[in-house]
Amino acid sequence: MFILSKYLKRFHNDKRGIGSALIGFVALSFGLTLMFLLVEMGHVYLAKAKIQNDMDFANGSTYAVLDMDKMAYGIYQFHNDGESRLDGYNDALAKYEEKLAENMQLNPGALTPISAKSDVGSPVQIERFEVYLKDDLPLTNSDGYFIDKVAVYSKIKVPIKLYFPLFGDYYYAEASRVTDLEDDL
């Protein structure tokens, strides 16, 4: 302890040492913060790319809800005979939620992460889900996407857990995706 106090006293008496130490401390703090920020930005970028890929697969899964008998005649619809178009939409939305939860490793229904190790916070919010059939086309939806084929459009808001609490707990990423179903036919 005596040795440490001896060096602290010398450091305190030397006026040049204090200025150099402060400049060094500020430069080191700024450099580390910048490095943490770059790591965090890379993490969020990769997480968002994975989320958009998961959304694309979930959008494509609604293909399974299409009425296959009608599709053989070039008629694309999500509802069966005797059902309303809203019933078909609800079936497509249920299939989308199921596959989104499966792809992103979320609890079905609640859309919360299964594991605490997940990069996704809770809950994932489906902001928009729209199905565009032939009689709706061509159009530009309210988010500016031009749609000219049978397609599914979805937009979700995902809280991504951040590594460093310096920048907060979550980054709320919005992701949107249009998947043309006719390309798969």
Largest sheet: 3 strands, antiparallel
Order of helices and strands, N to C? HHHHEEEEE
Quantity of strands, as a count = 5
Q: What's the tally of helices?
A: 4
Shape: elongated
Q: What strand order characterises the main sheet? A: 1-4-5
Task: Identify low-pLDDT runs.
Answer: none
How many whole angstroms does the radius of gyration measure?
26 Å
The structure class reads alpha+beta
Describe the structure.
This protein is of the alpha+beta class and 185 residues long. 44% of the residues lie in helices and 18% in strands. The chain contains four helices and five strands, in the order H-H-H-H-E-E-E-E-E. A three-stranded antiparallel beta sheet has the order 1-4-5, covered by helices on one side. A two-stranded antiparallel sheet has the order 2-3. Helix 2 crosses helix 4. The mean pLDDT is 83.
List descriptors.
185 residues, three-stranded antiparallel sheet, two-stranded antiparallel sheet, 4 helices
Quick take:
This protein is an alpha+beta fold.
